[in-house]
């Protein structure tokens, strides 16, 4: 009996130590006092959790991999259209160089490039006709469109570029981008690398592509520092992953024994999926770097995995407070409020604030500005925005098809009537009028947010 009790105590002790170690490495409570190596670790885990849990990076990468399989030949055809001015041989060489840089196995990359080049030469007006050619353009643009939407999901951007702007940007990148990168930069570097025997060219070209994706793909302003850090991080992991995957398929996975001459297809598919995962990781890194003040306010623990100690504030009340903060800032500074500023004040997560603001915008209460960084201002005169309308937008109404005599229906009806009686016709103009009268009072902290990210307006940086 004593032996069994001792064994049970040891087992409980091991489990407790395991849970303690897990919470130390992957905490579920804010860590506001983290410094040094601990802070770096928490930022890394914050990014990974956001990448895999909050944004479901594996699913996004799978969608991009599918679009890549559909679009690779049409994109190659457009690329050949742009570089054929340099001669057909140079176009073929360019595609082979791209395949060599992107695919881990040189032998398979040569075979794949040859197959794609042969098919891509068919993407011409003469062969497909006008309708078929433009159909190929549409298919080719699917990958770009999917990538743009995916990056906007990560950056919590809801506005979209116009179709014309999107297609123009895509066609320019597809035809001129690789031409500039590989023939204006890569060829001289290739020559230098051959002389000093260093395999640095893939890192340079991949890094440049990743940085440009992070800087220009989101439909919002991304600063160069986050774009560089995110792009170079993705490029580094991409090159490491490429070498690791090449070793795997050469030593462990014998695809030829199963697929024969079609072995290139599973290799290309799996590596395409892994590549997009790493690209999206770079986008996540860029996002976290740009929003580091918000990450610090979160205590380096993402809200999606944070332990809930209290009930969550209702969306209606949050929306009413967001509306008041935006209106007050506009009344004071005649400018818009950004999502990071609002998150720094309320600390309920950018994703939730973004969802609420998007709904307020769709209902016609907020308007997105054309400022460098996405911001919002009231879309109507403040005396036309009632508090009860904002609350009702999120919390009004009841479930449909309520049975006659339902006891909760009468209670809810009374609550709604009392709410209307208390709020009446109270609008945001009246709220701010009282705010102006009390301005300067130590108790007046209702709409002044806490310390905000750098470059925040005075109102958002002045509160305790």
Write structural notes for this entry.
The protein has 464 residues and is an all-alpha fold. It folds into 2 domains: 52-295, no CATH class; 315-461, Arc Repressor Mutant, subunit A (Orthogonal Bundle). The protein is 70% helix and 2% strand. The chain has a 3-stranded antiparallel beta sheet with strand order 1-3-2. Helix 8 packs antiparallel against helix 9. It starts with a helix and ends with a helix. Mean pLDDT is 75; it is low at 180-199 and 441-464.
Task: Briefly summarize what is shown.
The protein is mainly alpha-helical and 464 residues long. The protein has 2 domains: 52-295, no CATH class; 315-461, Orthogonal Bundle (Arc Repressor Mutant, subunit A), CATH 1.10.10.
Oligomeric organization of the protein chains: single chain
Radius of gyration: 28 Å
Order of helices and strands: HHHHHHHHHHHHHHEHHEEHHHH
Strand-pairing-aware structural class:
mainly alpha
Mean pLDDT: 75
Strand content: under 5%
Helicity, in percent? over 70%
Distance between the termini: 59 Å
Count of individual helical segments: 20
Give the overall shape, derived from the CA principal axes.
globular
| Biggest β-sheet description | 3 strands, antiparallel
Number of discrete domains: 2
Stretches where pLDDT is under 50 for at least 5 consecutive residues are 180-199, 441-464
Widest β-sheet, arrangement of strands: 1-3-2
- Total number of β-strand segments? 3
């Amino acid at each position: 009996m004593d032996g069994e009790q001792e064994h049970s105590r040891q087992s409980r002790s091991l489990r407790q130590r395991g849970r303690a170690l897990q919470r130390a490495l992957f905490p579920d409570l804010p860590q506001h006092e983290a410094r040094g190596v601990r802070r770096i670790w928490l930022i890394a885990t914050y990014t990974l959790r956001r990448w895999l849990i909050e944004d479901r990076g594996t699913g996004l990468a799978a969608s991009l991999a599918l679009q890549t399989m559909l679009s690779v030949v049409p994109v190659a055809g457009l690329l050949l259209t742009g570089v054929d001015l340099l001669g057909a041989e140079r176009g073929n060489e360019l595609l082979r160089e791209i395949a060599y840089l992107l695919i881990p196995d040189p032998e398979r990359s040569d075979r794949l490039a040859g197959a794609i080049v042969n098919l891509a030469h068919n993407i011409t007006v003469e062969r497909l006709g006008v309708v078929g050619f433009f159909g190929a353009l549409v298919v080719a643009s699917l990958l770009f469109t999917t990538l743009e939407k995916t990056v906007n999901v990560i950056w919590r951007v809801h506005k979209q570029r116009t179709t014309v702007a999107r297609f123009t940007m895509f066609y320019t990148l597809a035809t001129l981008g690789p031409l500039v990168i590989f023939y204006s930069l890569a060829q001289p570097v290739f020559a230098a690398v051959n002389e000093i025997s260093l395999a640095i060219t893939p890192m340079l070209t991949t890094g440049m592509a990743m940085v440009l994706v992070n800087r220009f793909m989101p439909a919002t302003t991304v600063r160069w520092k986050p774009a560089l850090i995110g792009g170079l991080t993705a490029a580094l992991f991409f090159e490491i992953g490429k070498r690791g995957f090449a070793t795997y398929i050469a030593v462990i996975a014998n695809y030829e024994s199963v697929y024969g001459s079609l072995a290139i297809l599973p290799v290309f598919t799996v590596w395409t999926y892994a590549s997009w995962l790493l690209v999206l990781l770079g986008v996540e890194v860029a996002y976290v770097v740009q929003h580091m003040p918000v990450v610090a306010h979160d205590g380096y623990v993402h809200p999606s995995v944070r332990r809930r100690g209290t009930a969550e504030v209702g969306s209606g009340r949050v929306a009413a407070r967001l509306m008041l903060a935006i209106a007050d800032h506009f009344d004071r500074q005649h400018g818009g409020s950004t999502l990071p500023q609002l998150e720094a004040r309320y600390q309920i997560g950018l994703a939730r604030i973004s969802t609420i603001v998007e709904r307020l915008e769709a209902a016609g209460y907020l308007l997105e500005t054309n400022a460098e960084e996405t911001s919002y201002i009231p879309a109507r005169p403040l005396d036309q925005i009632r508090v009860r309308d904002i609350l009702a937008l999120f919390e009004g109404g009841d479930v449909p098809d309520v049975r006659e005599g339902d006891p909760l229906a009468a209670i809810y009806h009374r609550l709604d009537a009392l709410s209307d009686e208390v709020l009446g016709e109270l609008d945001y103009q009246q709220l701010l009028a009282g705010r102006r009268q009390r301005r300067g009072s130590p108790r007046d902290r209702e709409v002044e947010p806490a310390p905000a990210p750098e470059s925040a307006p005075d109102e958002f940086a002045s509160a305790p």
